Amino acid sequence: MKQLWLFNQINSDLQRVEKELTKFVETGYPILQDSAIHLLAAGGKRLRPAFTLLAGKFYGYPLEKLMPVAMALELIHMSSLVHDDVVDASMTRRGRATVKAKWGNIVSVETGDYLLAKSLMLISKIDNPEVSRILAEISVEMCQGEIQQIKCTFDVEQTLKQYYYRIKRKTALLISACCKLGALVSGAPKRQVWALGAYGHSLGMAFQIVDDVLDITAKPSEFGKPIGGDLRQGIMTLPMILALKSTPQSSELRELLEKKDKTDEEVWETIAMIKSSGAIDQSMQLVDIYIEKAKKHLQDLPKIPTRKALEELAEFIRTRKF
Amino acid sequence: MKQLWLFNQINSDLQRVEKELTKFVETGYPILQDSAIHLLAAGGKRLRPAFTLLAGKFYGYPLEKLMPVAMALELIHMSSLVHDDVVDASMTRRGRATVKAKWGNIVSVETGDYLLAKSLMLISKIDNPEVSRILAEISVEMCQGEIQQIKCTFDVEQTLKQYYYRIKRKTALLISACCKLGALVSGAPKRQVWALGAYGHSLGMAFQIVDDVLDITAKPSEFGKPIGGDLRQGIMTLPMILALKSTPQSSELRELLEKKDKTDEEVWETIAMIKSSGAIDQSMQLVDIYIEKAKKHLQDLPKIPTRKALEELAEFIRTRKF
Predict the structure, then answer these.
(1) pLDDT at res. B30
(2) What is the interface pTM, i.e. ipTM, of the complex?
(3) Using CA of residue A269, residue A275, residue A278, residue A280, what is the dihedral sign?
(4) pLDDT tens, B249-267?
(5) How far apart are CA B91 and CA B103, in angstroms?
């Protein structure tokens, strides 16, 4: 999504964020640097810096203030991705080379810590105490979301409430912060800071639900990672929770969802059951609700081309296949 | 060391730090809370909060300003311990099973992240941007120290320079920050902020060297953890580096130091070789140099009972057996 046309307004600045980030995480340590650079080079969607910059467009676009915020938010995101990848000891016993897994863990923990520490350096130089307060609160909540996810793996009793709790912390809060802080450091009026934050929140919720749907429905070649990952890791997502409620085969589905070490056939079987339960459509209906909420919040903002870009971004998130 | 007489001046406030910390890490998640509380209950020396408070004693002791700094620094320390445990594969700390041993890597990572995030909440509310700038820089350096340690495990070519680089980041910088920030938030003059920071730095270096010596020489019953841990994990410490230079059995020692998965007999053999090389005495001479440096920096400070307490603390660190 590096050249996503929706980001046309800010493409060269996004590239600058990328360049600055690469330079900023430079260290004398090949291991640390390689893993940090590896993450950056993986590209990802750079959504978070994009939201930060776009939010600033409404208020004079003070790029030198927006850059460190955009960079810090992407570093926080990268740090959380890396820590999420740390393999639990029990998973390494399932035939994965323990030395390799152990080395991966060590470098993952330290890389994540390093990226977070670098983000703190940027944040500590921002002349607005509100920024660090907001980010500190979000960091705590993100940890709580992650722990809840760990606690609830393979737990088929999981409720929708728990799911929303988790995806709010896993995804929505940070995207909300990107929009909010982009506006804040640009001197936006309070009400519009709030509106952009609320846009980002609803968009983040929609984004994660779509991600969870795609993990079940996507074509592997488009998705960029194997599908059924959540099923294999026991992460109970919206389509699964809804499918359990609506499928006629609920005890079979339950059994499959609870099963650790699913075979490929079992994964496909589970996917088929979820699809035939109508849960995918129901999930997408919830996405629609969040997208409409997001777009509604944009109505409070100045009517400039950036507002249209954010509306179209919301639409893109609804319809994306990757 | 909870009732260490050196902390008499501040004992009840140290207990308050402990109480506040326990309350502060409360969360709705038993796993997270249990692991965080588990760490707190392991007790430790509470050195870092003690340094912070003692530094403030010179300048009117504004306790409400010192408390959040003391708490934040202890949380940063705890966070690094938990993450180090993932990295070091250690199973006990201070005689109790580590978070990792009890709950696995993922929970260790998340507990560490959570404790750090909580510290950021405290730091973000401190009305002095210098505090977060200093802590952010230290966090980056601590990561770099940890990575260097990972990179240099079982590396017998390690130099003294590399060792000092590492212990500065692993221990001295944070202790220095405790002293410095305690003074800073209490409104100390710049020169004395510096002096206390320099005291803490030298003391931290001495503290770590003594720790490394004790890992070889301590009586297990006093130490709170099995001895020879560094030898087993391939962490090359000062006594080992010095022993390699001065022992007549350098190729045997080299071989033993490089050996992963040492037997108990091999650990004892290595310890015996290090002891007979004179490296322990040499290490303690370096400790003496750092302690004298530390005490010299105290000369710049107001001559009040706290100054005597800090001098005696320095002496205690020189002579401690645990």
Answers:
(1) 67
(2) 0.89
(3) positive
(4) 999 999 999 999 899 999 9
(5) 11
Has residue A89 got a pLDDT over 60? no
Question: Which residues, given as ranges, of chain B have pLDDT below 70?
Answer: 1-4, 27-33, 35-45, 87-103, 223-224, 321-322
Of the residues B29, B109, B137, the best mutation for testing chain A's interface (the one with the most A CB atoms within 10 Å of its CB) is B109
CATH superfamily of A5-319: Farnesyl Diphosphate Synthase (1.10.600.10)
Q: What is the dihedral of CA B296, B300, B304, B306, to 10 degrees?
A: -60
Instruction: Compute the half-sphere exposure of residue B88: CA atoms within 13 Å on the CB side of its CA.
Output: 22
Question: In angstroms, how far is CA B232 from the centroid of its own chain?
Answer: 20
Whether residues B105 and A110 touch (CB distance < 8 A) is answered with: no
- Whole-angstrom Cα distance, residue B298 to residue A262? 64
Considering CB atoms only, which of B105, B136, B146 is closest to A105? B105
Structure tokens at B265: 């007999």
Asked whether the beta carbons of residue B106 and residue A143 sit closer than 8 angstroms, the reply is no
Q: Please report the DSSP string for A71-129 in residue order.
A: HHHHHHHHHHHHHHTPPPHHHHTTTS-HHHHHHHHHHHHHHHHHHHHHHHHHHHTSS-H
* Angstrom distance (rounded) from CA B208 to CA B218: 14
Query: What's this model's pTM, rounded to 2 decimal places?
Result: 0.90
**What's the mean pLDDT when you consider all of chain A?**
88
Q: Residues B307, B310, B315, CA angle at the centre, nearest 5°?
A: 130
pLDDT digits (tens, 9 = 90+) for A184-210: 999 999 999 999 999 999 999 999 999
Q: For residue B308, what are its two tokens?
A: 């005597």
**A302's tokens:** 């100045």
* Among B29, B109, B124, beta carbon nearest to A151: B29
Look at residue A107 in the predicted model and tell me its pLDDT. Answer: 78
Residue ranges covered by each domain of chain B: 5-319
Please indicate whether, in this complex, the C-beta atoms of A106 and B124 are within 8 angstroms of each other: no
C-alpha closest to that of A83 among A65, A103, A107: A107
